């Protein structure tokens, strides 16, 4: 099965983002918990450690294989349960640091919560890798939050199958 790519290009404030929308038949507080609480995150992407009140945590992806280093997440803005802004920092093999900005916005109407997630792309060419990755993880989130098993989703169905969409959207 080939999933449908859902990311679209968004240019805002001089930056290029890949943006995704997902809806959940759940109250906003429940979806907020799914993107902020370590045990809920662990079901679909990873977990964090540290004290968010300090303005930073260490995030660890748990579905990327062994040996993936944790990333520093700086919490730039947090307005529960509607808005979260994060800057990530990862040390690269060549000794440089790579940073991205993540934006999460949530809104609830009639028991349906909409999550809009975006990641900035300093180089739009990386969208062909980033886009399929977020489609995969956000689909895992939807499956987990609907009571299903996220392990039923297969990474190889997303990458490289969805790269053409992101090349065209960001080319």
Automatic annotation (TrEMBL):
Record-linked InterPro entries: ASHA1/2-like_C, START-like_dom_sf
Domain Activator of Hsp90 ATPase homologue 1/2-like C-terminal, first and last residues per copy: 25-142
Residue spans making up a coiled coil are none
Gene3D superfamilies named among the record's database cross-references? 3.30.530.20
Q: Which domain of life is it from?
A: Bacteria
Q: Give the protein family.
A: Belongs to the AHA1 family.
Q: What is this protein called?
A: SRPBCC family protein
Recorded source organism is Nocardioides marmoriginsengisoli
Taxonomic classification: Bacteria, Bacillati, Actinomycetota, Actinomycetes, Propionibacteriales
């Amino acid at each position: 099965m080939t999933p449908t790519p859902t990311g679209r290009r968004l240019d805002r404030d001089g930056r290029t983002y890949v943006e995704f929308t997902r809806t959940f038949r759940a109250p906003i507080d429940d979806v907020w918990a799914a993107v902020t609480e370590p045990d809920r995150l662990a079901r679909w992407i990873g977990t964090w450690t540290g004290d968010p009140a300090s303005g930073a945590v260490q995030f660890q992806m748990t579905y990327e294989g062994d040996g993936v280093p944790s990333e520093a997440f700086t919490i730039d803005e947090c307005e529960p349960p509607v808005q979260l802004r994060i800057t990530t920092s990862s040390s690269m093999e060549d000794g440089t640091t790579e940073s991205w900005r993540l934006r999460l916005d949530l809104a609830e109407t009639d028991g349906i919560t909409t999550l809009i997630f975006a990641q900035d792309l300093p180089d739009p060419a990386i969208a062909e890798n980033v886009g399929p990755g977020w489609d995969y993880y956000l689909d895992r989130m939807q499956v987990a939050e609907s009571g299903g098993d996220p392990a039923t989703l297969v990474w190889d169905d997303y990458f490289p199958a969805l790269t053409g969409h992101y090349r065209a959207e960001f080319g």
